[in-house]
């Protein structure tokens, strides 16, 4: 649907939107962006985010493991994962996700994608309390993993977090336009 150049621009626009929403949440430290892409690094740096450089793009689970090692080494007590492809996430939704997170530790809070199959937000305390299972049917895999670790997953359904952009029709729905011109309509 989009050219390579348009897809790259779309990814960067969505990342800017997610980082802007994160910056607006009081009390959150600067986000950490895991990437091996120089353009993504530039956007992250411009937004005040930290950067954790991947040696190569080896998939989301490997990137999460890399982030986990970094967070544990720096003494971080909680991991919040948000993907770059949820441009309609709001700071109030992120605050609601944080508020829903159990006060007792360890704890796991998840927000599913619109279709209920994907994990569009994951909050874990401590960061290593469970393994990551991003990919097909990740939401049920993460819930199963939490239960296998003796944790009760808290599920929060939030409209902006749920709306990811994985397929052309999702881009059309978010942009509110037909396929052509969709890139300019994304926030």
Integer-rounded radius of gyration: 16 Å
Quickly count the helices: 8
Whole-Å distance between the termini? 19 Å
Main beta sheet = 4 strands, mixed
- Specify the structural class: alpha/beta
Work out the helicity level.
40-55%
Write down how many β-strands occur, each being a DSSP E stretch of 2 or more residues: 6
Number of domains: 1
Report the CATH C-level class: Alpha Beta
- CATH superfamily (homologous) name: Spore Coat Polysaccharide Biosynthesis Protein SpsA, Chain A
Please trace the helix and strand order, writing H or E for each element. Answer: HEHEHEHEEHEHHH
Low-pLDDT stretches are: 177-187
Shape: globular
**CATH architectural name:** Alpha-Beta Complex
Summarize model confidence as the mean pLDDT.
Answer: 89
CATH topology name, in short, is Spore Coat Polysaccharide Biosynthesis Protein SpsA, Chain A
Q: How are strands sequenced across the largest beta sheet? A: 3-5-4-6
* Portion in strands: 5-15%
Detail the topology: elements first, then pairings:
Elements: H1 4-23, E1 32-35, H2 38-46, E2 50-53, H3 60-73, E3 79-81, H4 91-100, E4 107-112, E5 119-125, H5 138-148, E6 154-155, H6 159-162, H7 168-175, H8 182-185
Parallel strand pairs: 1-2, 4-6
Antiparallel strand pairs: 3-5, 4-5
Task: Give keywords.
alpha/beta; Spore Coat Polysaccharide Biosynthesis Protein SpsA, Chain A; 8 helices; 6 strands; disordered C terminus
């Amino acid at each position: 649907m989009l050219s390579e150049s348009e897809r790259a621009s779309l990814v960067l626009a969505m990342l800017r939107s997610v980082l802007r929403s994160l910056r607006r949440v009081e009390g959150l430290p600067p986000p950490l962006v895991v990437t091996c892409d120089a353009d993504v690094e530039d956007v992250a740096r411009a937004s005040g985010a930290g950067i954790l450089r991947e040696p190569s793009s080896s998939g989301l689970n490997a990137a999460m493991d890399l982030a986990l090692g970094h967070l544990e080494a720096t003494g971080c007590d909680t991991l919040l994962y948000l993907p770059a492809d949820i441009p309609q996430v709001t700071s109030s939704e992120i605050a609601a996700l944080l508020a829903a997170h159990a006060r007792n530790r360890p704890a796991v809070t998840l927000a599913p994608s619109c279709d209920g199959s994907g994990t569009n937000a994951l909050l874990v305390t401590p960061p290593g309390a469970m393994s990551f299972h991003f990919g097909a049917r990740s939401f049920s895999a993460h819930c199963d993993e939490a239960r296998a670790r003796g944790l009760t997953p808290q599920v929060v359904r939030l409209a902006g977090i749920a709306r990811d952009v994985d397929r052309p029709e999702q881009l059309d729905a978010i942009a509110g336009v037909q396929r052509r011109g969709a890139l300019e309509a994304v926030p």
